[in-house]
Amino acid sequence: MSDKILTTTAGAPVPDNQNSWTAGERGPLLIQDYQLIEKLAHQNRERIPERVVHAKGWGAHGTLKITGDISKYTKAKVFQPGTETPMLARFSTVAGEMGAADAERDVRGFALKFYTEEGNWDLVGNNTPVFFVRDAYKFPDFIHTQKRHPKTNMRSPTAMWDFWSLSPESLHQVTILMSDRGLPQTPMNMNGYGSHTFSFWNDAGERYWVKFHFKTMQGHKHYTNEEADQIIGKTRESYQEALFGGIEKGEFPRWKVQVQIMPEMDAEKTSYNPFDLTKVWPHSDYPPIDVGVMELNRNADNYFAEIENAAFSPSNIVPGIGFSPDKMLQARIFSYADAHRHRLGTHYESIPVNRPKNEVHHYHRDGQMNVYGGIKTGNPDAYYEPNSMNGPVEQPSAKEPPLRIHGDADRYSHRIGNDDYSQVTALFNLFDDGQKARLFANIAAAMSGIPQEIAERQLAHFDKVDPAYGAGVRMARQTMDGREPAISVTPQTPQQAAE
Q1: Cα(30)–Cα(22) distance, integer angstroms
Q2: Residue 203 is part of which domain span?
Q3: What is the pLDDT of residue 377?
Q4: Contacts of 465 (CB under 8 A, 6+ apart)
Q5: Which positions are annotated as active-site residues?
Q6: CA 272 to chain CA centroid, nearest Å
Q7: Model-level pTM greater than 0.85?
Q8: Could you say which residues bind heme here (predicted)?
């Protein structure tokens, strides 16, 4: 144990650096949690000028066509039957810098901006349905492990596995990352997910919880580590080449759009926390509903202006779509927009690619990037609100239903009483022998050189998922080290492991 006391930047002792301050065990967050706000705001300013995360990206324009009918769940015009909405997509790696190779094993960002008639709706997700952490308090710490070591200026597998082994909630995402799906061949050959739990609300004021899924219609294709090494040896821009080149040739990629719907009060009945970003909703309980098709069909005319300047934020919602008590989502509502204010300027949404297609009226004044020379109210005398100068006024019909909360405000431990293993077991059981063998080998390679103490701590988590999981990784590590396994075995099936 260290004898150093963790403090705020002002020198005050930090009583809890693991759990956000929430209203009730499930949240939402309290803005009085100044330690969380400081942590997130500081992270957004750690690197300039590229994005702190998701720096390397590829994007294109397209359309969202709604073919299904979910109007009973949401009043959002973007989801009404027959609607066609212009949109922009940006895919990215998480950890790499601007010059990183595209074909690296990493989570892929899946950011979408829909230019609806009611304003911009942004869905900022990943190619995985879960994430490494469930409390935003740990997000800056996690990202530090993915970036360069402050002394060596190199990536640190030790830091990565040290954090993961001390954070069992990461198991679900780690297993996906190290599986075949952790290295898609192109942006077109991967799914996208909103990942978080969001909410729909309808004209009757009823709220439903919702998960968004974008299923590739090109099929899943993945590289092994060895294949990716060969690709990177030839080009660092393989994703950009595939996406840009395909669209130029008229090969427009498509994704089937689906939603999972949960009645509001079901959240009190599930055995898992449905607002936990490390969990999925079983399809057997909440089957995906087909909504429409997303198609990318136009490349940017200028990459910097239309893709690099694109600013996506979960805070951009429209009437009929809302948030949930998801602690990670609640923090991202603040941190994404704040990152754009830092990176692009205060009025970043005035940049053409971020500008809504409908009319915009607001009372924000002056500041960096104000290209209008004033506020957008239609009347220079209406620079405050309320006013008698015919300035823009609020629209009560856009108010969403109350968000149910309960419980006392406290820093609740998100690890106490939380099952971080059973959903990973279910995922592991879906893999065939070949997929498991590659999973074991990928993990063994990623663990190369880390301290044995950290490796054993992580292996103990794999054992809890399934004894065959831990045994398979141990055998792969021994083989990679040039040692014969202590006991020569083949990876067991879940049934064999149970026996």
Answers
A1: 6
A2: 21-354
A3: 64
A4: 171, 175, 421, 424, 425, 428
A5: 54, 126
A6: 20
A7: yes
A8: 336
From CA 291, how far away is CA 468, in angstroms rounded? Answer: 39
For residue range 266-299, list pLDDT tens digits in order: 999 999 999 999 999 999 999 999 999 999 999 9
Question: Is residue 222 classed exposed, middle or buried when 0-12, 13-18 and 19+ CB atoms within 10 A define those classes?
Answer: middle
| Residue 375 maps to a domain | no
Could you tell me if 49 and 339 are in contact, meaning their C-beta atoms sit under 8 angstroms apart?
A: no
Q: CATH number, domain at 302?
A: 2.40.180.10
Q: Which residues are annotated as part of the binding site?
A: 336
What phi and psi, each to the nearest 5 degrees, are found at residue 62?
Answer: -170, -155
Residue 406 lies in a domain: no
* Contact in structure between 328 and 21 (CB atoms under 8 Å): no
d(CA 47, CA 343): 9
State how far the Cα of 319 lies from the Cα of 398, in Å rounded to an integer: 5
Residue type, position 220, single letter: H
User: Is residue 196 within 8 Å of 125, Cβ to Cβ?
Assistant: yes
pLDDT for position 146: 94
Number of structural domains (the chain) is 2
Whole-number Å distance between alpha carbons of 352 and 369? 12
pLDDT digits 0-9 by tens, 127-149: 999 999 999 999 999 999 999 99
349 shares its domain with 433:
no
Residue 380 lies in a domain: no
- Please state which of the ranges 49-53, 70-74, 100-104 shows the lowest mean pLDDT: 49-53
User: Looking at 312, 335, 354, which one is the last position of a domain?
Assistant: 354
Domain boundary among 322, 354, 386: 354
Q: In this structure, which amino acid lies at residue 324?
A: S
Q: Is 396 exposed, middle or buried (0-12, 13-18, 19+ CB in 10 A)?
A: exposed
3-state DSSP helix/strand/coil % of the chain, to nearest 5: 35, 20, 50
- For the annotated binding site for heme, the residues are 336
Residue 489 has pLDDT above 80, yes or no: no
In a domain, 271, yes or no: yes
H/E stretch holding 321 reads strand 321-322
Helix (H, G, I), strand (E, B) or coil at 121: strand
